[in-house]
Fold Sulfotransferase.
Amino acid sequence: MAAATGPVPYKEVGDEGTAARDPLPRDEFAGLVASLPRKEQFLDGRLYQGFWLPEHYLPGVVAFQRRFTPRRPDDVVLVSFPKCGTTWLKALAFADVFTDGHEAMLDRLPSPRLINTHVPYPLLPEAVTGDGGCKVVYICRDPKDMVVSLHQFLRRLQPDLSFADMFDSVAVDGTAPYGPMWDHVLGYWRASLARPDRVLFLTYEDLLQDAGEHVRAMARFMGRPFSPAEEAAGAVEAAVELCSFEKMKGLEVNRRGTSGSYKSMPRDAFFRKGVAGDWVNHMSPEMAARLDEVFRDKLRGTGLTIPRGPRHG
Ligand code: A3P
């Protein structure tokens, strides 16, 4: 995890203007995308191999699925369900982002690369999941907080966005972006049980509970444990502090401007409350019970339970 050997931020390889020149796979997979069942919603979805992927990002996902080849043993793929702690995990792991299918740019990144995606486990390329693949770190979160976070996030662009519709897309038909959430989470959960050396399963609530412990675990898992000297120098605590909600929210770069190549999102929207349990302020006890029941049912017998954190508010 030492900075000197860490990955180079994605931006640096785009500085020579290559990002703009990378061809996107949009045209190549236009026919495939057009042939898939569609759901009109804030981020229009297409049902691809059992998951509702945002139409805009689907060509990049297909390109990733078909062509991404990890560099072993260095590459690490960071995966999250949207609004479950992607930004935090990326900061903690110095991640780079693969969302738009800038394949040539990805190729140019020096090793070790950290690649971030929301791609469901069954859609990961065989080159990642099979023998000779690479390591994967996954993060998920209490679905109740995830729904609230997603709604609050998208409302920044569409203030009249219905919470009831958003809730249904997670709790009822699973059409939320990259959903069904239960299948997304279970794919990585089962993989983490089958191959603990290859898939590390984390929750947002775990990180809230003890970020240091999980940063250590992540560093060990990635094959870059903190050395005794780094431990003694307080490197773990420093990393946690550097990536804390307050620190990141307060950074000038995160307070102004927008990000996103598709919908332009104010950067400060990525830092809202940063707690567990904020759902109590946004959903009725009946809705919460219903969502819990759906997930309890889906997770039954898997050994996974809905993540719980200390109540907020
Ligand atoms: P809330 O909306 O509940 O505040 P993602 O990064 O996957 O989009 O997830 C967004 C959620 O992570 C938001 O949750 C956001 O506030 C929270 N978050 C972002 N950075 C964080 C950090 N450094 N520490 C803790 N939570 C963070």
